[in-house]
Automatic annotation (TrEMBL):
PROSITE patterns: TONB_DEPENDENT_REC_3. Pfam families: Plug (PF07715). It comes from Larkinella punicea. GO terms for cellular component: cell outer membrane. The lineage of its organism: Bacteria, Pseudomonadati, Bacteroidota, Cytophagia, Cytophagales. It is found in: Cell outer membrane. Keywords: Cell outer membrane, Membrane, Receptor, Signal, Transmembrane, Transmembrane beta strand, Transport. GO terms for biological process: siderophore transmembrane transport. This is TonB-dependent receptor. SUPFAM superfamilies: Porins. It is a multi-pass membrane protein.
């Protein structure tokens, strides 16, 4: 019997005695104000959603996690968010630390990457976390998070798992529908029983009043969740007695009922056309005014309506067609315009993609070429252009340990709008489960959800977000005096030294508080950056501090402690094959090292080129060292008496320089002066610190002709340490200058997939890879079709293929297929 339908039959008198209220936008100013503030809040704080698809749910140290990130606009689910940077962290649960951090470049809402699992990682439970910089303005509960298990070939599967922390007692919670119980009004109380590992437990029990009367009995409906009806009476308190699977019984007090107020009961099951909201109150007759009900989904108002407080029972009806698919929030405001009741509902519309995966035949031979036809259609079987990622894995090695695990569909429509972990989220989207919608409604009654609180929404002004929307990489920080006080406005120069030797130079100012930010940058991982700050004309007595460039603090609240638990022999083949493969790779590396030691290579030593020099060989070159800088006030002082044919006369700050033979009827013709290849005046040469000089070249006669008539008196070229392409800026401690190596975009690696239709030496090795193929960027055409080819391995086993993806308008889909290799 459907418990939800039974509940509403018990409340049938409520419907008969109520006043049916058509759900339309009311004329009162408060509903209009609610809609306006909701729109303003959503504009000030637009939401984003992130999902990360991986090739499998568990890995062995030494393997690679292949991943693809999806970025969605929060309200509309359009598959292209504003942010262009995606951060991915691998967290170890036991240590609560980030062990791997990646920065991925997102284009058109998609980002691809990988995480190579180093040998130093311990086996155990991990979490893959992903977020944008903008998402850091909101609670971490809304970051994407996914549990992963890491194994080691030198540690068995059973030993790899650690015991769950915390108490061994299960957690039992009770949730009055709408948020509160009210004396004299019948309502429903949902409950949830969860084990220490985060799994729902089957329980049963009963409720006793303080007078000792049995009020009702109850039992779980699905995954530890259920509900019961109760009508609290004045002067009574209530206690639930919960019986666990081991036979023990535990007592839990129910939330205290309010003496007066509102009750909200929602029927999202029995009517196909409308969502019905039953509102009752026991306010005294002297209380006048209107209550307000507003429905909103992902920050967008659906509709708002009002009812008179004097009407003690009202039914509000919302047409289902007005809601988008997914979670919506219903809020009841009392006559004083205060939120008093709230309830979530899930609207099922099946507005999702169907992904068909069809191998060219049901059975293949080892190492045979596999052709896979892909087609994507909508609910009307019309073709759809979609972007997909596909993983093909050895089903004998990669086991499906978690039934109804999270995927793109369940995350986008369910998990991303809920706090806490949802157990078996895929269950609620499988049409084969006849009770999935009633069970989903119970989930909405028990799962906490607070994208925002109304107190924040109803503010007239909103504080500025701390973290900006990132259209590219960001360098931000603060400039302070040595005493840590604010210096006021400061001129900044930023030099980004790309790995390909190209350089980007930017300039700007810090604000009155010394804060600065450089936005929209694009550079690769581990790039060297120099920031120079100057106050006034030439005051560099400043310190530069960069903001945390790594990741937010770890606070694991979304994912329960839920490592995959394996039987001793379940992964025997998987661990064996991984160990064999790693040993082969190690032997190949050793062989290469031996081979290199036995080969003698003879080649004429090449003089390293310096991009700052446009000429060939200098007439004379001085390599500056500490013995030369001692006592020298200027760069030209270091030339005195050190280079034959070069005469430096006069005082240190007003010298005359002459290269032998450089004179005419007007007198001495001084040489052309250059700093790092750029012609400068003699006065500029005198301002260069002797400690910054790396070398000095002297060009005489024909050597200087490349510079034309400007160098009729020869040339003196000064090369600084800072200008050298090999200069290590991390050793530079100049005042007002900060040099740092900052993380940039992770370079995209291609998944290695052997082609057995080509003869190669490495094909002689055995092939028992657990992931046979990973294709992160599959684009279907206007006909909704695409084709993919890869090769089977040596394993005679079923191969499981999973594809996930979305259309540009945000409709998600998941497709699966299995074929045999014999």
């Amino acid at each position: 019997m459907n418990l939800l339908s039974t509940s509403f039959r018990r409340l049938g008198w409520f419907v008969a005695a109520s006043v049916l209220l058509a759900f339309s936008l009311a004329d009162d100013t408060f509903p209009v104000y609610l809609v306006e503030r909701l729109q303003a809040f959503n504009t000030a704080y637009p939401k984003e959603k992130v999902y990360v698809q991986t090739d499998k749910p568990y890995y062995t140290v030494g393997e690679t996690i292949w991943l693809k990130g999806y970025l969605f606009d929060g309200p509309s689910h359009l598959a292209d968010s504003v942010s262009k940077v995606l951060y991915v962290d691998l967290l170890q649960i036991e240590s609560q630390k980030v062990v791997v951090h990646r920065i991925l470049k997102a284009e058109n809402g998609y980002a691809t990457g990988d995480i190579a699992l180093g040998d130093s990682l311990a086996s155990g439970a991990y979490v893959l976390r992903a977020y944008t910089g903008w998402m850091r303005n909101f609670p971490e509960e809304y970051f994407f998070s996914k549990p992963l298990t890491l194994l080691r070939t030198d540690v068995g599967p059973v030993q790899a798992m650690t015991t769950a922390p915390g108490s061994l007692q299960p957690d039992v919670q009770f949730f009055p529908e709408g948020g509160q119980l009210v004396n004299g009004i019948e309502g429903r109380v949902a409950f949830k029983t969860v084990s220490p590992a985060g799994k729902g437990l089957e329980t049963s029990g009963f409720v006793l009043s303080s007078a000792g009367d049995t009020v009702t009995g109850f039992s779980t409906k699905h995954l530890g969740m259920g509900y019961f009806s109760i009508k609290p009476e004045t002067g009574q308190t209530y206690t639930a007695f919960v019986k666990l699977g081991d036979g023990s019984t535990h007592q839990y007090p129910l939330p205290a009922a309010q003496p007066e107020g509102y009750m909200m009961v929602v029927d999202n099951i029995t009517n196909r056309e409308n969502v019905r909201i039953y509102v009752r109150n026991n306010k005294p007759a002297s209380v006048q005014g209107r209550f307000t009900v507003i429905a909103q989904s992902r920050g967008k108002a659906v509709q708002a309506a009002q009812g008179e407080v004097t009407k003690k029972a009202v039914v509000v009806q919302i047409p289902r067609q007005l809601f988008p698919e997914g979670i919506s929030q219903l809020t009841l405001f009392d006559e004083a315009n205060q939120p008093v009741c709230e309830r979530l509902v899930f609207i099922e519309k099946n507005n999702r993609l169907t992904i068909h995966l069809k191998p060219s035949k049901p059975t293949f031979s080892p190492r045979e070429k596999v052709e896979l036809n892909i087609s994507v259609t909508d609910e009307s079987e019309k073709p759809v252009r979609a972007n997909l990622a596909l993983a093909a894995t050895d089903a004998g090695q990669v086991l499906e340990k978690e039934p109804y695990a999270a995927d793109l569909v369940s995350h986008l429509l369910l998990n991303s709008d809920l706090k806490g972990s949802v157990e078996q989220p895929g269950y609620y989207f499988d049409p084969a489960n006849k009770e999935r919608l009633p069970d989903l409604d119970v989930l909405m009654m028990t799962q906490g959800w607070r994208r925002f609180v109304w107190k924040e929404v109803l503010q007239e002004t909103y504080p500025a977000p701390q973290h900006p929307i990132e259209q590219g990489l960001v360098l931000s920080g603060r400039v302070v005096r040595p005493n840590q006080k604010t210096p006021g406005k400061v001129t900044l120069t930023v030099l980004v030294m790309q790995p390909d030797s190209s350089r980007d130079i930017l300039s700007g100012e810090a604000d009155e508080n010394g804060r600065f930010g450089v936005y929209g940058l694009s550079f690769q991982d581990s790039t060297r950056v120099m920031i120079q700050a100057v106050m006034g004309k030439n005051n560099r007595n400043l310190e530069i501090q960069l903001d945390n460039l790594i990741n937010p603090a770890v606070k694991l609240t979304k994912i329960p402690y839920n490592p995959l638990v394996f039987q001793r022999d379940e992964l025997a083949d998987y661990l064996k094959h991984v160990k064999e493969y790693q040993e082969i790779e190690a032997q190949i590396r050793r062989n290469r090292e031996i081979l290199l030691k036995e080969v003698t290579i003879r080649k004429r030593r090449e003089v390293p080129t310096d991009s700052r020099k446009i000429y060939g060989q200098a007439s004379n070159t001085i390599k500056v060292d500490q013995t030369m800088t001692g006592g020298a006030m200027t760069v030209l002082d270091m030339l005195r008496g050190r280079v034959a044919g070069v005469n430096v006369s006069g005082s240190a700050m007003n010298p005359t320089v002459q290269i032998r033979g450089s004179a005419n009827f007007s007198g001495v013709v001084e040489p052309l002066f250059l700093i790092d290849g750029m012609p400068v005046s003699k006065e500029s040469i005198l301002t260069v610190s002797v400690y910054d000089v790396e070398s000095i070249d002297v060009l005489k006669g024909a050597s200087a002709t490349i510079f034309g008539s400007r160098a009729s008196g020869g040339a003196i070229a000064v090369y600084t340490k800072r200008g050298s392409p090999d200069y290590d800026y991390t050793k530079d401690k100049s005042p007002g200058t900060l040099v740092a190596v900052v993380p940039g975009y992770r370079a995209i690696r291609a998944f290695y997939a052997p082609r057995y239709d080509e003869t190669k030496p490495e094909h002689v090795r055995p092939d028992f890879r657990s992931t046979l193929h990973w294709a992160p960027m599959i684009q279907t055409g206007d006909d909704g079709k695409a084709q993919l080819t890869f090769f089977a391995s040596d394993a005679r086993t079923p191969v499981r293929v999973v594809a996930e993806g979305a259309s540009t308008d945000g409709r998600p889909g998941v497709g699966k297929a299995v074929f045999e290799v014999k």
